[in-house]
Amino acid sequence: MFREQAFENAYQLVEHLSPLNRFQWGKSRYIYRGQPCSGFPLAPSALRTAGPMAAGSVMSEKLEYGERQVLFELQLLRAFIRACDAAGIPIPGDSEQLRNELRGLKWELAFTRDERNWPPKVVHPVLATAQHHGVPTCLLDWTRRSYVACYFAASAVMHTPAQSGSLAIWALNREKLDDWGAVKLLEMPGATSANLAAQDGVFTVSTLEATMGGGLESTTVENLLAYDDTDEDPNPLLWKFTLPSSQAPELLSLCADFGVKGSTLFPGYEGVAREIRDKAFAGELAEFFST
Question: Whole-prediction pTM value?
Fold first, then answer.
């Protein structure tokens, strides 16, 4: 269950989510996630039930859903490590033990028979790295900074066809970890990735423990949280803030005013190019040609 609040314009949303609003947000009380469509669930990419990268699309339907999911994620991890090796890229959390476990059948036998313990902590650093670079995992990206979440929601609206008339910013209360149920918090060192550090990123881990008998649809974060919201609680476990998609360009502009933009969130040429694309989609590219 979550608390929901709708905003009509970007300025109202930015003002409400201001880190200066310490009574509401505290100091790192919440983590945030932006999504381009308010109808999208908080579903980790590897646990989604449709699409070319979903377990159900590439694994045998003869397998039980938990067994299929574990094998799918193991194969993705193996493929990610092989590709990193071929490119000569170091992998955070890499070790001989990890590689021996991934190469053998012990994990397949152990976790397909009791998938409630998947994923083990030893793979968390590799999962975090893979997730942050677009590989489907059971992790979900969040940030400690509300305006970073606003940027990602607005930018995604500008770059992809809108799926609904509104975008969404989710806020999850990290002070109530005991109420997170089968959802765990994963924080990685900034050295894991320059992008991760710049975005002040963290992750939630959706274990398969809560899916027994419920199917993979039950692994969305909002369904896994073991919490009953009450209107009297000023700091609920989960907030959902919505904004009309038409306000995305203004939201991007306001984020940029606070220094939250492509070039600062993605250090390097990638981020600079992303910032230019954002401005083009938002109709602000003309400012570069005015004198």
Answer: 0.86
At 211 the pLDDT is: 52
94, 126 Cβ separation under 8 angstroms: yes
Q: Using CA atoms, how far apart are residues 13 and 251, in angstroms rounded to an integer?
A: 9
Q: How many CB atoms lie within 10 A of CB 205?
A: 22
Residue 66 has pLDDT above 50, yes or no: yes
Task: Kindly report which listed range (12-16, 102-106, 201-205) carries the lowest average pLDDT score.
Answer: 102-106
Q: Say if strands 139-143 and 238-244 run parallel, antiparallel, or are unpaired.
A: unpaired
Q: What is the DSSP annotation of the chain?
A: --EEEE-SSHHHHHHHT-TT-HHHHTTTTEEEEEES-TT-----GGG-SSSTTSHHHHS-TTS-HHHHHHHHHHHHHHHHHHHHHHHT---TT--HHHHHHHHSSHHHHHHHH-GGGPSPGGGHHHHHHHHHTT---SEEEEES-HHHHHHHHHHHHHHS--SSSEEEEEEEEGGGGGG-TTEEEE---GGG-HHHHHTTEEEEEE-SGGGTTT-GGGGSHHHH------TT-SS-SEEEEEEEGGGHHHHHHHHHHTT-SHHHHSTTHHHHHHHHHHHHHTT-GGGGT--
Burial bucket for residue 91 (CB in 10 Å: 0-12, 13-18, 19+): middle
Tell me the average pLDDT across 65-69.
70
Which of 12-16, 129-133, 201-205 tops mean pLDDT? 12-16
